[in-house]
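worker-03 picked up job from queue 'complexes'. Input manifest follows; three sequence lines, order preserved.
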Amino acid sequence: MSRLSPGALVRVREDYPPGHIRTPVYLRGKQGVVERYFGAFENPERLAYNLTGPKKDLYKVRFRAADLWPDYQGSPKDVIEADIYDHWLETMG
Amino acid sequence: MRSPQDIGGLPEGPVNPSEHMLNFWEKQADGLRAAVGAKGLMSSHESRRAIESLGEDAMERLTYYERWTAALSLQMVERGVLTQDEIDAKVAEVRQRLADTGELELTSGEAEKLPAEQLP
Amino acid sequence: MSQDHQNHHHHDHDHDHGHDHPHAPPQPDDKVHSYYQILSIALKELLIEKGVVTAAQVRQFIEKRDSITPANGAKVVARAWVDPAYRARLFEDGNAAAAELGFPITGTRLVAVENTPDTHNVVVCTLCSCYPRDLLGLPPAWYKSRAYRARVVREPRAVLREFGTDLSDDVALRVHDSTADIRFLVVPQRPAGTEGLDEDALAALVTRDAMIGVARIEDGAH
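worker-03 finished. Artifact:
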């Protein structure tokens, strides 16, 4: 059972740890919605050092482009989606 | 704080749509990467991390396969498959060999001129 | 050629940049490029000498890479256009659907995303160059470029216009940043006027750029 379900409101953790991170900086601290659950995967942050560990749930998270960029030119319906691991996602109340 | 490859959203110019067919050495680099990966000696994750470690200047200056070559070199040493001394010695040997055949001044566009003996 | 030379230091590029002055002394960048090409040869020779890989294995992977082209993805799309049950399977499990047509996808998960009259999809990997290589082959140089990776999540409509794709405001755009082990295949809309075409003819209409999402397949082009 994954922690988050499609439709869950989430915020990407606003941290800047060193190392191999697959959560792009342009999404840190941003709010989005879980679009899909992909299952549990090995954590790339550890795989990058040839280490294994507990698998992490992976989610497709959808962000409104207008929420990411204050001067976004385009439709208010435009979205950017990224595949983000569980430990990078905080639930919103 | 960004790693040098984490560039989503940064200002950049027009996209250059021209196609690029891989030249000979790039194909070799791609095949070598796949062969090494198939042996479990380098994962895409380790390669990416190695490339990220090269820094901003390398990102700017090196071409795609040059970065992968750098990553392979780092990874082989990190995994203990090769030593840096071995690599440095082989580089000197290859360089000398190419100089002897008059093919030393390589640029990305001239790699195809490598003589047939260099082909595996 | 001089344009390429100016762009040399600022763009992530893989194109050949032949020089206007082949007999000039190597510039510092040339020395760096030379070093990495020599290093690539050196690593290959060392790894073969040590029995880590064989020359045959390297050749096999090159041949395998050469054998995969966007035509493979086009076949998947064309089948999805003509066969609703296959289409459903494709969206349910992209790896299995691709394998059905003889295109195994290993190490990553293939996820198909659907263009509709009100939604258009485009794919990028802002962090590197993740791309459905097992189905489409090698990505185009522009897909790996800084300009594409930086801008398509920021001003996607402008980038699409550069590719000749002008979306109206009532079409929503979904930009997929491939940040993990998921690889996205855009299933373009089947163009109007193609009812009489067989699967092969339909596949011939499906371009790599339409499967990345920077292009659409125009109606009436047939």
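worker-03 released lock.
The two ends of chain B are 43 Å apart (CA to CA).
The mean pLDDT of chain B is 86.
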